[in-house]
Amino acid sequence: xxxxxxxxxxxxxxxxxxxxxxxxxxxxxxxxxxxxxxxxxxxxxxxxxxxxxxxxxxxxxxxxxxxxxxxxxxxxxxxxxxxxxxxxxxxxxxxxxxxxxxxxxxxxxxxxxxxxxxxxxxxxxxxxxxxxxxxxxxxxxxxxxxxxxxxxxxxxxxxxxxxxxxxxxxxxxxxxxxxxxxxxxxxxxxxxxxxxxxxxxxxxxxxxxxxxxxxxxxxxxxxxxxxxxxxxxxxxxxxxxxxxxxxxxxxxxxxxxxxxxxxxxxxxxxxxxxxxxxxxxxxxxxxxxxxxxxxxxxxxxxxxxxxxxxxxxxxxxxxxxxxxxxxxxxxxxxxxxxxxxxxxxxxxxxxxxxxxxxxxxxxxxxxxxxxxxxxxxxxxxxxxxxxxxxxxxxxxxxxxxxxxxxxxxxxxxxxxxxxxxxxxxxxxxxxxxxxxxxxxxxxxxxxxxxxxxxxxxxxxxxxxxxxxxxxxxxxxxxxxxxxxxxxxxxxxxxxxxxxxxxxxxxxxxxxxxxxxxxxxxxxxxxxxxxxxxxxxxxxxxxxxxxxxxxxxxxxxxxxxxxxxxxxxxxxxxxxxxxxxxxxxxxxxxxxxxxxxxxxxxxxxxxxxxxxxxxxxxxxxxxxxxxxxxxxxxxxxxxxxxxxxxxxxxxxxxxxxxxxxxxxxxxxxxxxxxxxxxxxxxxxxxxxxxxxxxxxxxxxxxxxxxxxxxxxxxxxxxxxxxxxxxxxxxxxxxxxxxxxxxxxxxxxxxxxxxxxxxxxxxxxxxxxxxxxxxxxxxxxxxxxxxxxxxxxxxxxxxxxxxxxxxxxxxxxxxxxxxxxxxxxxxxxxxxxxxxxxxxxxxxxxxxxxxxxxxxxxxxxxxxxxxxxxxxxxxxxxxxxxxxxxxxxxxxxxxxxxxxxxxxxxxxxxxxxxxxxxxxxxxxxxxxxxxxxxxxxxxxxxx
Length: 941
Prior knowledge:
With 941 residues, the protein is an alpha+beta fold. The chain is 17% helix and 36% strand. Strand 33 (574-580) and strand 34 form a beta hairpin. One of its GO terms (cellular component) is outer membrane-bounded periplasmic space.
């Protein structure tokens, strides 16, 4: 099963097994007189909706395995006297095994409630696991939390579910919870006899849906991994499934005291002794009614739970005892208490616990002597006299100075020398050249990966390390440039680089740059800084000097500041703007720029809508040295009101300076319309735009239109036509909008002579699109309808011929009745053919009722019988046709009937319900495909 939550860490097998044998649970009587308990077997997941895990290579699905195994378990239990049943119906249940629920729905709440109500004695949920392709083995889940029985001692645990949610567990489990745990352990023990799937030795306490909702013992089985190709094929084998079903029977027999074997294997003693790094486990005095198949000793150390558990198979000795030798190297060379349990399996596959014991193991640890010495900038570490009973994998030496805590901590690996010692040399440059005390620790790692602290010591590094100096550091300012000079350098450890980080006082260090000074012929270093690289900030600049020696060590040499710097920037004497029609002319005069002029930029925007229309223009130099640019307000949406004009100058060094700003006012009178209306008729929308006033002239009138169905997915821009009275009009076919019915939105824009778009207004109209009308003139002939019927290959009802109504007469009656009420005969006749199956009937309505539209027929009710009311005559048949036609008219219009009403289902609330064949779907008939079916027949006429 591929759970939505992950499983818990391994539960201590030793503790569980001890509980099995040392704790007496009393949910059931110790011994039942005969099997017969009610057991629910739930196959996980559901065919067709939830396949669970799927192996893409073998094609095997979890739901298929669950169902097959559940069938075998139920069959095996029933063959042995248990009242076993499936929780719900599954396709594989061809034998007719009983089920708790008659439905195929696999719902944990429904099944648990039904099992609780029935008073079942046990519920087992069958699943198969999913993980990596190499994942393998079975495992079991039980819940200490049973809210329907006990809500005391509850607590929350995280880490059991992969989605991060917590699990509810019970610190004082009720009897059924303890019985569930007992069964999970019995399964885990007895399943070990299976030869096609291994044990994961995993029993998990968790609040799974099935196991927590029952009021009887319940266990969830994960029978193996679907994701493992070989294991999925083995689990799909019917013989293997029967083996697991047999072990389920053995476990349930033991749980209920129905075990068919009267005597279990016993032993007089289980002992363990230690010699060096080995444990010898011995079981003596074995008593058994059957032959012994296997004796096994599961062994693990107390350290870290059962993470090192190993199952050893014992060898029979000449005195009849069984013995196994355990090397602690197979248990990570861990010392301390070891747990030794003993199990016997007889030739019938029955597993018995023979006893358990513990033994203490003293482990020799690695030792060594640790010394350090300092030579210049080096710390030398020596590890000698190494004693390693379990070998040496690595010697680690973490080192750090006391300066700044462990901010310079580094882990070094010592190197083995020819004499067996380990050495290491550490350069303090890798520790920021820190002086003072250094802490030196040493750890040995043995061949099992166990760490041992071999010792700690310190080393002291003298603080008299010679550092770099500079006798003179200065700066000078000229225009927009700063020159930095560094001289009189003394560098005992060599000189690699001189760095000069520089920044202005403006906005902190946001403009900091690290420059590299250049060495001069006289041995000094110098650097020139351009303030354009610092945003032309004015004010004081900060300059620091760092020297880097040949070892890579940084030395701070000096800090200084510049004098106040005033950048030389561009300026102008005036910025003016004037308006002429729809154009603005901006003029910039009196420009002075020490570094020349590269570009004059003029951003312009209207006050309307903020800066949504801002555009950047480039001014052009004029013959008199000024700069000018012309702006057309059509590029600003023809906005009227205030326009803002700013001016920026960029010099040849790419410094951009704000030169000034101005504004102008534009007044225009846009186009207007006094009235916009829309009407709908015959699938056409007519839009009228009246009372247009256009001081700036009219280029066109645009009418974007769309239905509200699906937003603007069907929007179309139409152009209205000028009428003789000066108004504008446009006619719109609703079929251009997918034949949508419902509200339509209509907007109107006027395009002025200069190209400016002006919104004139909007309106809306309700559209009921009639694609295939029901009312109207008939366009088919009697011959067309007769030819259609003959092509169907159906036999015309003899009972109609017997009363004088042959096919030709029948068709003419339909045409005549439709013409009398203004209904299209092709619609009515096609509907009759659909409703009656080309007059073959066969449903609730009979041919003898003369009911050709199923009037009044619903779910077993045959509907209205025109023959019974109007006679089994040609008149009665014509009346049936008339009733059909009148009922169509009732749906399709609000006009009165032209003939006496015979429609038994006439109701004024139905009027105008369906103007078209398309609208019959969902009104006349619930079938949403009803209209296409009627139209398909019409297309055959």
